[in-house]
Design goal:
The complex is a heterotrimer. Chain A is built from 15 helices and no strands. Chain A is mostly helical. The longest helix of chain A is centred in the middle third of the chain and has 36 residues. Chain B is an all-alpha fold. Chain B has a domain of 153 residues: MetI-like (MetI-like fold, Orthogonal Bundle). Chain B has ten helices and no strands. In chain C, helix 8 packs parallel to helix 9. Chain C folds into two domains: 264 residues, Rossmann fold; 80 residues, no CATH class. Classes of the chains: A mainly alpha, B mainly alpha, C alpha/beta. Chains in contact: A-B, A-C, B-C. The interface between A and B is large, with 57 and 46 residues.
């Protein structure tokens, strides 16, 4: 196990550096191809060259290499690495506010959203998948198959929009007009936008929407995994051992089936981050996703780059943890 | 050990589980994985309906004039957001007073174009990379896997956001590029896994013993057997990319008007949902239908090609 | 007989009717099993009968697909009931028909009275649990032992099957053992609750020849020590010759010949058995063409009428091609053959 962890750590370092370099290269290439975005920040006003240069430099976009298409700008890259690892500096926005502060303020909201999403997708997704897999061909199986396929086919923004309109607005209005449900429900859960008065309640539905795509995938993955494992040789052995059905399924089958699902849940973090951008935009949650959304609208590439860099590093750390978890769950990996 | 896909299965041993009798034993007819799959697929109503829908939508993209005589560009702003009139203007008019039905038909082209270009490129690029990594193993595999990991560390939507924001140009090719850059890794991984499974099979060793070179083994022996999971995933990916384009457009980094894809139609008209719901219903319906068809066709393919589920 | 399980069998006022301690530990009578598949109904087991006595080794010999594994699994009761279907017959444990028992009681018999080991020990063992866990759960579930006691007994069982350093190995995972060691672990699991009958389904097919010999020796020794009945299912005639007392040859879901081992080798009385023996390569016939059995075994969805072997049989006559299938003629007191012309087959060299 120790050598496995060590090997993973040793792979983690070049991968992280590589990812950071990739981001750096893509952004540099983009700027080289289409011109310095600093110009666009000034909008209708015509800045002097000095003003543009000053702004460009402060945003880390002033290097001359950014005018040569294809130049990987290694010096710029090293500067950025230094900034990140030595000073935790992920750049600033046009108002000179450090990106890391922006992220820090927005983080708690996104975190709550993601937590709700993960709990939802894990609990409902795994349960649905297990039931569908065990009762293959039955009603539950068809129901799960059809629902999950529909959930995957509808883009998350359509789903979010539809849920918000029909549930939060229309249904919510009905709840708010009547008086049957307590406030935290009709004002909190049913609120179409995030309300600071109800920090958790008003995030419930956005969290469910965020988790819905992942839930569908989790359910399908669990179902497939169960179907494969139910027919496995070791299950036949367990039955030949005279073990009760509950134990054969609950202990033997389940333990093996859940391995790919648990690793998927960890890896899906990246998908959740992407989905958060959309969900936070629709439901007005002041989280990291919305900051990204804003930065896109306001043409602030340095902010986007900063936030995405941070998120990518978090994602890589999550992957590392998931890999280790995988080894804990599946002993065959440990002794590889 | 799984049977090599193209070998005649005279005797199908029960693969794990509670033993059952051999399948087509004794009839003497050779069966292959693809032959069996085709047999199963043409009898699968879901697959047939999905394929039909896909064909309809493709014909909209390729031959839009077959579906409508109106042009999406003859617009009269005075007709803005007028409700549908049967037969002449079945979808009504959009925000700019253009015929919405024509828009929806012509909108199929950019949506499908992006999906097809992106998927084809991803299959070629990712497939090649995965084939090399899986076949040669060793340090080739190590390097390629590290590179794949690096690209995989960029979450799909975020990476596309970054790329498109910086490219600033928004057209079919840049959006496709974003999808390709972020999407090739999944196919590479699938192909690599499939190739690794296949290269250990006996018939590959046999081919090598008969003096076949790398290229021949890869092309003639391994590829046809390893490609099944890639085909399945590529079908699903087609649907996924259609959906992704719409999402990127919604976020403001995809196609922009006057380009008319379904994504653009949805983004432009979403604020009018309350008053004129049909403005959203039509493009959303077409979009979801297309994505659904691709995914279900991919699912049916997967079930048909999986030897374990026979 | 195991005390706990005899309680289980009579619990709930159940009547272990037919139970006779002097009846053979396992007797199968006219068993029929069919599978309902997309390609049709496959008659996997077509009237199979055999019995095994205490301290006796019965070998069930036949090619892949002849129904021998299905028979074994039907005896154990671990077939998936759809698509499988037991079409008739009896599986008698000491005179008691297991097919008529409810699942709960049937489960009590499994592993306690009748146990089974499988061909590929790597896939037959759960990869995520230690060997000690998988052994121990037998004791914990069937005998209510504590974890500590179960672990101790697990180590004892691993010693019994001659696995070195049992105390350390008990915490290892299946993939950490070699093929032969894994098979020993399976044997340990099967014998943990001291069953009266052990069914071994191709236990050595996946192993090297030298390891094969060791495992067969182990099985033989354990069988003698415990006075068990051992049913050995195999397609390998070489393995069988040393260990078996009696042999039942199966073809297309039926037993075609059944006799003591030396009888089968000396005076085979069925064309199929004869052909099998002739197809074994022999050093003194070196240089001559290998003799093979022409044709292929039939698809179990499409068994030929009459004698299933007739399309490939050089003795076949018109009678053989017509229903009903040949009955089991009595060659002598311990020797049965399902061939109309067994005398002719027996005389010819």
């Amino acid at each position: 196990m120790g050598t496995y962890v060590l090997r993973r750590l040793l792979q983690f370092i070049p991968t992280t550096l590589g990812a950071l370099f990739l981001l750096h290269y893509l952004t540099s290439l983009g700027i080289q191809l289409t011109g310095n975005p600093v110009r666009a920040i000034f909008g209708d006003r015509t800045p002097t060259q000095a003003q543009m240069d000053a702004l460009a430099n402060s945003l880390g976009l002033g290097d001359a290499c950014l005018q040569r298409v294809g130049d990987p700008c290694p010096a710029l890259f090293l500067d950025r690495l230094q900034a990140i690892f030595l000073h935790f500096d992920f750049g600033i926005n046009v108002n000179r506010r450090p990106v890391i502060e922006i992220v820090g303020d927005a983080l708690p909201f996104t975190l709550k959203l993601v937590v709700i999403a993960i709990i939802f997708e894990a609990v409902v997704g795994i349960t649905a998948g297990v039931l569908a897999g065990l009762r293959n061909g039955g009603f539950v199986d068809y129901l799960v198959k059809i629902t999950t396929v529909l959930m995957i086919s509808v883009p998350v923004f359509v789903l979010g929009f539809a849920v918000r309109t029909f549930v939060n607005v229309h249904l919510g209005n009905w709840f708010r007009a009547g008086d049957m449900m307590p406030d935290w429900f009709s004002q909190g859960v049913m609120s179409p936008v995030y309300k600071p008065d109800y920090p958790w309640a008003s995030l419930v539905i956005p969290g469910l929407v965020l988790g819905s795509l992942s839930l569908a995938t989790t359910a399908r993955l669990t179902r497939t995994s169960i179907l494969e494992n139910v027919r496995a040789d070791y299950v036949r052995t367990a039955r030949a051992k005279g073990l009760p059905r509950k134990r054969v399924i609950g202990v033997h089958t389940l333990r093996n089936s859940l391995i790919p699902v648990v690793t998927y849940l960890g890896v899906d973090f990246g998908g959740l981050m992407g989905g958060a951008v959309v969900t936070e935009g629709i439901f007005g949650v002041p989280g990291i996703g919305r900051e990204i959304f804003r930065a896109v609208l306001q043409q602030q590439p340095s902010v986007i780059l900063g936030i995405v860099t941070l998120l990518v590093m978090v994602f890589l750390i999550m992957n590392l943890l998931v890999d280790i978890l995988y080894a804990v769950l599946d002993p065959r990996i440990r002794y590889d | 050990m799984t049977e090599p896909a193209a070998v005649t299965s005279v005797e199908a041993p029960p693969s794990g589980g509670t033993g059952g009798p051999a399948g087509r034993q004794g009839t003497g007819k050779p069966t292959s994985l693809w032959g069996d799959a085709r047999h199963q697929l043409v009898r699968n109503p879901i697959f047939l309906v999905s394929c039909l829908y896909i064909l309809v939508v493709t014909s909209m993209a390729v031959l839009p004039r077959m579906w409508t005589s109106q042009s999406p560009r003859t617009c009269d702003i005075r007709l803005s957001r007028n409700s549908p009139e049967l037969w002449d203007h079945p979808f009504g008019f959009n925000l700019n007073g253009c015929d919405y039905y024509a828009h929806a038909i012509y909108g199929a082209r950019p949506s499908l174009q992006i999906a097809i270009v992106a998927t084809a490129s991803v299959v070629v690029l990712g497939g090649l990379v995965g084939l090399l990594a899986g076949y040669f193993g060793g340090w080739v595999d190590a390097i390629i896997s590290r590179i794949t990991d690096v690209f995989l560390s960029l979450p799909f939507l975020l990476g596309a956001l970054v790329l498109l924001t910086l490219l600033q140009v928004r057209n079919v090719w840049t959006v496709s590029l974003a999808l390709i850059v972020l999407g090739w890794t999944v196919i590479a991984r699938i192909m690599r896994g499939s190739v690794i499974e296949t290269r250990n099979l006996d018939f590959v060793a046999a081919a090598r013993a008969l003096g076949a070179g790398h290229g021949r083994i890869m092309g003639k022996h391994i590829l046809p057997n390893a490609i099944a999971p890639v085909v399945v995933y590529a079908t699903i990916l087609l649907g996924g990319f259609v959906s992704a384009e719409a999402t990127l457009t919604f976020l403001g980094v995809g196609l922009q008007p006057p380009a008319a894809s379904w994504g653009v139609m949805i983004s432009t008209h979403q604020q009018y949902f309350d008053r004129d719901p049909w403005l959203l219903l039509f493009p959303v319906g077409l979009l979801v239908g297309t994505v659904l068809s691709f995914i279900m066709a991919g699912d049916a393919l997967r079930d048909a090609l999986d030897p374990k589920l026979q | 007989m195991n005390q706990t399980s005899s309680d289980l069998l009579t619990a709930g006022g159940g009547d272990p009717s037919g139970f006779r301690p002097d009846a053979p530990p396992l007797e199968v009578k006219d068993l029929h099993v069919e599978f309902h598949t997309r390609a049709g109904v496959a008659h996997a087991v077509n009237g199979v009968s055999f019995q095994v006595n205490e301290g006796e080794t019965l070998a069930i010999l036949g090619e892949s697909g002849c129904g021998k594994s299905v028979t074994a699994q039907a005896v154990m009761g671990i077939l998936d009931i759809p698509p499988a279907r037991i079409g008739g017959g009896q599986v008698l444990y000491r005179g008691m028909d297991l097919l008529k028992l409810p699942e709960e009681k049937r489960r009590a018999v499994r592993a306690n009275q009748i146990a089974m080991i499988f061909q590929d020990a790597l896939s037959a063992l759960n990869p995520v649990f230690t060997v000690g866990f998988q052994l121990g759960e037998l004791f914990r579930v069937h005998q209510g032992m504590s974890r500590a006691d179960a672990k101790k007994k697990s180590v004892e069982m691993l010693d019994l099957v001659r696995i070195p350093a049992a105390r350390q190995r008990v915490s290892d995972f299946p993939h950490q053992f070699s093929g032969g060691m894994r098979q020993r672990v399976m044997i340990a699991m099967a014998l943990a609750l001291d069953p009266e009958v052990l069914i071994a389904d191709e236990p050595t097919t996946a192993l090297d020849v030298t390891v094969q010999a060791q495992i067969m020796q182990l099985l033989d020794d354990l069988k003698t020590e415990r006075n068990m009945g051992l049913i050995l299912i195999t397609h390998d005639m070489g393995v069988v010759a040393d260990v078996a007392d009696r042999i039942s040859v199966m073809y297309a879901g039926r037993v075609v010949e059944s006799a003591p081992v030396h009888e089968i080798y000396a005076r085979p009385s069925h064309p199929y058995t004869k052909a099998l023996l002739e197809s074994i390569p022999r050093v003194d016939l070196k240089g001559q063409q290998l003799s093979v059995i022409q044709g292929l075994p039939p698809a179990l969805t499409n068994v030929p009428p009459g004698c299933a072997f007739h399309p490939r049989c050089r003795y076949a006559r018109d009678e053989c091609r017509r229903d009903p299938a040949p009955p089991h003629y009595t060659v002598d007191a311990t020797h049965l053959s399902a061939c109309h012309f067994w005398e002719e087959v027996r005389e010819r060299e």
